[in-house]
Amino acid sequence: MPFGExxxxxxxxxxxxxxxxxxxxxxxxxxxxxxMEGCLYIFPLAAWRRIEERLTELPLTDAEARNFVRxxxxxxxxxxxxxxxxxxxxATLRTFADxxxxxxxxxxxxxxxxxxxARWLANLAEVQSKPPAPELLRELVG
Length: 142
Prior knowledge:
Blueprint: E1 5-9, E2 15-17, H1 20-23, E3 30-34, E4 40-44, H2 45-57, H3 63-73, E5 77-79, E6 86-88, H4 91-97, E7 102-108, E8 111-116, H5 117-129, H6 134-141
Antiparallel strand pairs: 1-7, 2-6, 3-4, 3-5, 4-8, 7-8
C-alpha cells in the first residue's frame, strides 16, 4: 500500500511527477478519476477493474447510484508514467481538482490522491479541528 505525501508542481503541459515510492504501485498503468473532497483518485488498473465490477452492480433504478456512477466513471482517464516519471492530467480533471500549480500527491489504501496544495492544507486543518470518533480509533489500533 502506498503511504506518505509528496509536493510537486504541475508543468505547463499539465504533467506531474509520480513520486518514486509510488511508481511501482501504478507501474502497469492507472486510471485517474474525480475523487471526494475535490481531489483526484489514481487507481492501479487491477484495482480499477474491481471498482468497475462494483459500479455495474449498482441499481439502475437508484438515482443516487446513477449520479455517483456519472460523477466517478465519466471523469475517468487511463494514464501511464512517461520516461521522466510523469503523468499527464487531463484538463477536465485538472479543472475539477483545481490543479494549476502546486499539488500534493498522497498515498491511501488502494489508491493515490492528488490534491491542490490549498485544498490539501484546508482538508488537514479541518481534520485537525475535529478529532476522529473514539470508536474509529479503537477499531484501528485495537
